[in-house]
Each structure stands twice: as C-alpha cells, then as structure tokens.
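## retry 2 of 3
previous attempt timed out at serialization; input unchanged, resubmitting
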Amino acid sequence: MANAPKPTTAKKESSGSSIFASLSIVMCILVGVLLWKFVMGDPANFEGGDPENGHPLPGNYFGMVYKGGYVVPVLMGLFLMVIVFSFERFFVIGKATGKGNVDQFVKKIQGFIGAGNIDSAISECDKQAGSVANVIKSGLKKYKEMEVEPKMDTEQKCLAIQKDIEEATALEMPMLEQNLTVIATLVSIGTLMGLLGTVTGMIKAFAALSTAGSPDQAALANGISEALINTATGIATSALAIIMYNLFTSKIDKLTYAIDEAGFSIVQTYASTHK
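## retry succeeded, writing output
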C-alpha cells in the first residue's frame, strides 16, 4: 500500500502534459497567424506599400511568403509546434535520463549488485536520479525485502522482484512517450497542408491562364509562387517532425534497454546467490 500514491502522481503529470499540449497547439497557430499578418504582411515588403494588391519587393522573401496565401500561417503554426514539442520532449527525456551517463550508471549498478553491495547500488540510484534510476531503485528495494522474506521460495522471490520492476517501469516510462503522438501526427498533417496549399495555388494559376485574351501574368506568378511556398513549408515541417520523432524514440529505446539490462542483472544475481 506504500506505493499507492504513485498512480495519482502519474495522472497529475499526464493531466498537466495534456493541458500543455492543448495550449501549445492554440498558441503556435496564433503566433503563426500573427507572424504572417504583421511581419510578412508588413506594407514595407511590397511595392506601393499594398500587401493585398502589390507585388513583393525584389528579393524580399517575407513578402513572397505572405503571398503564399491563408495556408501559410497554418503551416507556420505546425512548424512552430514541432519546435515547441521537441524542446518539451528534450527536457522530459533529459530529466528521465538523470544526472550522469546512463550506460556508465548501469555498469556501476551491475558492479555493486555483483559484489552484493545493494545499499551502495541504492545510493548510486539516488545520485543519478531520473526515471531509470527510480525503476532500478524500486527493484533493489524489493531485492532487500525478499532477502528477509521467510515464506517464499527463491523462484517466487525472483518473480516478485521482476514484477516490481515491471510495475515501476509502467509508472515511469509512459510519460516519456507522451506528446510524441503529436509530433508523429505533424509529419502527416504538414505534408497534407502543404499539398492543400499547392493545389490552391495551382487553381489560382490556372484561373489566370483561363482569362480571355492575354493571361494575367501577375496572377499566374502569384499562383505558382503560392503553390511552391506552401509545398516547401509543408516539406520542411514534415522533415523536421520525422527527424525529431526518430531521435526521441531512439532515446526512449535506449532508456528502456538500460532498465531491462539492470533489471535482468538484479533478478539473475538474486537467483544465483540464493539457491
């Protein structure tokens, strides 16, 4: 019963993360709209100071992006989301890793366990901190409890230690994967929104070509420009999201492997020393 408060704590952290995600999505879209309207749509970026009817000044990329149309601020918001959630995951995973190198930490723990020095291993977990250390510390405490448990045989004690480690992992690790679904979703949404902007731009370009007499070259150029800008922004958003998602999943896999490796050492050491 001593561990009963843990699920409540996990729920509070999950709720806080959900609120952060919701607010971040709204704020990123809002910032994207404001940047598009007031920075890129600044009259100083256009001929005659007219953002709606004037052409972007030669070489003025802000004006060119503004002419990308209403899909641009949405794409900018999506790009900002990737950046915001990437920083948030860097912080959370870094905190879960602890204060030192995980591989060296696991080797130290294995050395202490092999020498039968469980108290030193627990102290090392306190120094390391983080989710990995918390899980291993939980297993080590169970190890000590099983040493003075008179009613269970060795196999049952090993299973109890393993179960404790699995339960501690189930409490600690899900927080690392939270909001990764947002980054994964942005991979698809970025591409689709870029494609939508491409289609709307080409519709405008073909509409300019279909006018009677000579085509409206300015409208044709703006339509093609809108299509290409949206395509580029969508691709950039998706590419960054893919890179960050793979990076974070790799880091989480490394932490999971470290826990499995240390947990296996704890169980095997107990089994071999308590035959």
